[in-house]
Amino acid sequence: MSISIATLGDCLDHAHSIHIRCGCGKQGWLDVERAIAAAGRAQSCLAGDLLTKLRCDGCGRKGRMDMTLHGPHPDGRPASEGT
Length: 83
Ligand SMILES: [Zn+2]
Description:
The chain is an alpha+beta fold. It has helices at residues 8-13, 32-39, 47-50, and strands at 17-22, 27-29, 65-70.
């Protein structure tokens, strides 16, 4: 069975993490729970939908970021929690 990750709620439910990197050099893990609090579980996490909504903590601009979706570690913890 394959899972499809289409929304922020899917990311949370399946322990997927989103790594974001801005053109200014700032990068880090998106706080999915915080993003859900702001935008709701139904917010699409596809790059074309999500990146336009994210403001960079570093330079304060929107729309300059790239993102990568990461599945969980083999033990089920989110990739954003480290090794
Ligand atoms: Zn930036």
